[in-house]
Each structure stands twice: as C-alpha cells, then as structure tokens.
From TrEMBL:
Origin: domain of life: Bacteria
One Pfam family it belongs to: FAD_binding_3
Protein name: 2-polyprenyl-6-methoxyphenol hydroxylase-like FAD-dependent oxidoreductase
InterPro entries for the chain: FAD-bd (IPR002938), FAD/NAD-bd_sf (IPR036188), FAD_aromatic-hydroxylase (IPR051704)
Gene Ontology molecular function: any one: FAD binding
Domain FAD-binding, chain residue ranges per copy: 2-325
Length: 343
C-alpha cells in the first residue's frame, strides 16, 4: 500500500487524507498541539459545495452556517453609505474555520494517523526527518501546510511568495454594537475595518487591515504587530479607539498578510503541494477554502487513477492550473482595488 505523508491538518490536508485513506496508508503531521481552533469565518463557493457532499458533511456544515444577511458600508464617520450582499463576504455557505477543521479531523481520525506537535525538518527522495518523531520513508510527501509552507521551502526553495500590499489583525470582542448576523465595513484611506457577528450574538469578529510593503510583520512579535496596527489607525475616530483597546486584550489575536503563492511547478519528485502551500490565491480572492477542498479532491483522484505518481501529479497540475489562475487574478484585482490611492 502506498505510504503518504501529509504536512498540515487544517483544511486541504485532512480533506486529502479522507479521499486517499481507503487506498493508501496516510499519516498527517501537524506542528500545532492539536486540531486548530482559530481562524475567521470561511466560506464555500462553486464546486466546493460538491466536495462537502463527497466528504459527507454538507448537512452539518449547513447547520453551522453563520446566516449572514449582508454588510453595511460606512464612511470615515461611521455613517452608512451602502450595502453589500451576503455573497461578497460569505459565499454560498459560511462557517467558523474552527468548526470546519474540527469536522474534518473528526471524519478522518480513524482513517489516518495524526501526529501533532511535530514538524518536518528534511525531505530527501521520500526519506523524511522530523523534529520529534523517528525518520521514516514515504512514497509521497504532500505539503498542505499553508502559505508559509515548510514543505515548499524544503523542496522548492524560498521563492514563490507574492505580497499584495495588505496586512492586518483579527480577534474577537464583546458585541457592543449589537450586530445580528450582519457586518460593517469601514474604510478611510488605506485603512479598513470589517466587523461581523454570526452565530454567537455576544461576540464580535474584528478585522483591521492596512497597507504594507512586505509580509515582514508576519514574522515579528505580537507587540510589534500591535504597534504597526496602531500606527496605521492613529487619529481615526468612530469606533477605532475602542477596537484598538480590545485588540490589546484579545486572547485570540491573529496577524497575517495578504499574499499569493506562485511557483512554476507544484511537484518535485515525490513531493507535491496542495491548497495555499502550492497556490494561495490570497484572502482577497474569497476562494481559499474552496480552492483547498477542490485541490485536495483533484489531487486524490489523479493519484488514485494511476500507479505512476509522476503522471498523476502532471495531470493534477494540468487540470487545476486554469482554475487557480482565475482565482489568483481575482485576488490580485481585489487587493489592488483596496490599496489604490484615491484620485
């Protein structure tokens, strides 16, 4: 039986494990100490709805839908200037990311071997070394470990990350605005605020985004990230001071930059990439989760259709590249519209 190692237990990794596990011996390694319970709400669009059905979790996902009713657009003073329909931010279905991650782990826990609190340190023609576990040999190693993929760095080198000019923080706080399955989008200059309250009426999800020249802040300390955020929003009124105070107190603080991954090939020998690790389209595309699920299903199908893994990986990339290119163009266009200097 083919031995497959998947690095990353967020979305693409467990989905791939599900589709391969009836025919392969699958191990999933994840550097976090357990299934991840963080992240903003994520949405599903187009063919990803079919993948949820194939995973057998469609009904459970629909039960978790945030049931967003849309987003009000505000000016610098907080006055409403327009309304965006649900689909802009929430797609056809939207759930908290932690719920999807939990479900994917639940349906694969007895189909694949999970190794948490560990990470790959070396890959040589299927021979893999780890930080904690003994070295082992695998027929295939799949990087499903996100935009800053360690597998990509080890097997393909440091290139491939394209910064699109935005960074930002996410956290939650008490819902003092009383939002009810709805959102607010505030924008002034190069600073943006997105607020949303979904299935937990007492909590408000907060996103504060601003223009940056590189993703360097992603590697800095939380204190440095908070300082950069405060500097970007300095002098603004409305709810900004209160949001910044809540940021400092948040225990679910998250920081990330808007990037794409663009490399010439998604495979090298016995190593391949799936989801954000190989072809992140950026959060501004709205397609990250859908692309991860569709990518996992496509990769699994191609691998199971032939015993020649090299031919399978070529077929996977040939089939998926046009879809990824379209999503990446959407991600770039939306990022450019947000970072463009007003006339």
């Amino acid at each position: 039986m083919t031995k497959v190692l998947i690095s990353g237990a967020s979305v693409a990794g467990p989905a791939l494990a599900y589709f391969l596990s009836d025919h392969c011996d699958v191990t999933v390694v994840e550097r976090a100490p357990g299934p991840r319970d963080s992240g903003w709400a994520i949405d599903f669009r187009g063919g990803a709805i079919e993948v949820l059905a194939e995973l057998g979790i469609s009904d459970r996902i629909r039960d978790l839908d945030t049931r967003s009713r849309g987003t009000a657009v505000l000016d610098a003073d907080g006055a409403k200037t327009g309304e965006l329909p649900r689909e802009v931010f929430s797609g056809e279905l939207e759930v908290p990311k932690r719920d999807l991650t939990r479900l994917l782990h639940e349906i694969t826990a007895d189909r694949a071997r999970y190794v948490f609190d560990d990470s790959i340190t070396s890959i040589r023609d299927g021979h893999v070394e780890f930080e904690r576990s003994p070295a082992a040999d695998y027929d295939l190693v799949i990087g499903a470990d996100g935009v800053y993929s360690k597998v990509r760095r080890l097997a393909f080198g440091p290139a491939g990350l394209l910064h699109l000019g935005l960074s930002g923080v996410g956290f939650s706080m008490p819902n003092h605005l009383g939002l009810d399955h709805s959102g607010l989008l505030w924008q002034h200059g190069g600073a943006f605020v997105y607020l949303f309250s979904g299935n937990d009426p007492d909590r408000l999800t907060v996103g504060l985004s601003f223009g940056t020249e590189s993703p360097e802040l992603d590697r800095r300390s939380r204190a440095e990230q908070e300082r950069a955020t405060r500097a970007a929003f300095a002098g603004h009124g409305w709810e900004i001071p209160r949001l910044l105070d809540a940021m400092a107190a948040a225990d679910d603080f998250w920081f990330g930059s808007t990037c794409q991954v663009r490399i010439d090939s998604w495979s090298a020998g016995r190593v391949a990439l799936v989801g954000d690790a190989g072809y992140c389209a950026a959060p501004t595309s709205g397609m990250g989760t859908s692309q991860a699920l569709i990518g996992a299903r496509t990769l699994a199908r191609c691998l199971l259709e032939t015993s020649d893994h090299e031919a399978a990986l070529v077929a996977y990339e040939r089939e998926l590249r046009p879809y990824v290119a379209e999503n990446q163009e959407i991600g770039r266009a939306h990022a450019q519209s947000l970072t463009a200097t007003p006339a």
